[in-house]
Amino acid sequence: MTQDTADALHTLAHEHLPAEIAARWIGLLRPGLALANATATDAEAEAATDADAQPGPRSVVGRLGGLPELPEDQEWPVWEGHGPLSFIASVDCALLPSDALDIALPKDGTLAFFYFDGQPDDGRAMVHPRDPDSWAGARVLYVPAGVPVTERAAPEGLRPYRHVPLTTWVETTAPYPWHPVVYGEFEPMPDDHPLWGEDFQEAMEDHPGCLHQIGGHASPDQDEVETEVAHGVLGGPPWNDPRIPEEALRWVLLAQFGSDDDAGMMWGDLGSLYWLIRPQDLAERRFDRAMFTWQCG
C-alpha cells in the first residue's frame, strides 16, 4: 500500500475513533491500484487524486479511450438491438503491480473495457444491473499474452474518446461507510456508534478517493456498488431482503473509471463506471461474468 495514503487513513481513524474501533476499521482497508494520466504534471495529478506518492516520470500501464487493439477473431462488442459499445479503457496486466492487490488479477494479458454510452441511440437505452436485458451493454474482454492483435477502427457512427495514457501506483482504499463488510464487522451499529460520528464522517468525505482504479474498495458516487450488483443478480427483490448484503460480499471491484476531461468522458453528472466480479470468476478468467453498474452525483 502507498505509505502516505495508509498513514493518512490510520491517522484519521485514530483521531476520530476509539482505539479498539479504529484498529478494527483499519483492518478493513484494502489495496487498490490508482490510475491517472501519465502525462499530467505532479500538481495536476495530485489535484485529480492523491498522487503525491508518484512524482516525476511515470510509466504507462494502459489507457483511456483511443482505439482498442483486438485479436483478429474478436468481434467489436455489440448490444444486440441497440448498437456497438464504446471502448472505455484497457490495462496491460503485466505492467501492473498486481502482487500488491488482494484479488487474483492476471499476471499478463490485456483487459479491455467497453460500455454502451448512448451514442447510437441518443441515450435512450441505459445499462443497469436491475435490468438483465441491458447487461450486454457493458463488457470486459481479456486478451491473453502472446495473442496477435491489431488496432481496430471504431464502428460507423461511434466517436472514440480521446486517448489518455495511464500510469498507476498502489493506494490504500477504505470501505464505504454503509458497505456490508462494515456492518459485518461492527453490528449492531446503533445511531451513536462511533463510525456514525460527525467528525469521522466529515473526515472520510474529505479524504480523496481514486478517479480511476483497479481493485480495492470502490469509490461510489452514491451508495455501495456491490449492493446494486447483488440486487440485480438476485432478480430485484425488496431492498430489505437479507440475501442482498450476503450476495454483495461475494463481489469485488475489478475496475472503475470516472468522468475525465482529458478523455472527454462524462458519465451523467460527473459520475463513474464500475465493473465488479466474483473472486472465483476472476481466478478462472471468466470476465464474461463480470457485472456493471454506474453512478453519478
UniProtKB/TrEMBL annotation:
Domain of life of the source: Bacteria
InterPro entries: DUF1963, YwqG-like_sf
Residue ranges the record marks as coiled coil: none
Region of interest (Disordered), ranges: 46-67
PANTHER family tied to this protein: SLL5081 PROTEIN
Name of the protein in its database record: DUF1963 domain-containing protein
Record organism: Streptomyces triculaminicus
Phylogenetic classification of the source organism: Bacteria, Bacillati, Actinomycetota, Actinomycetes, Kitasatosporales
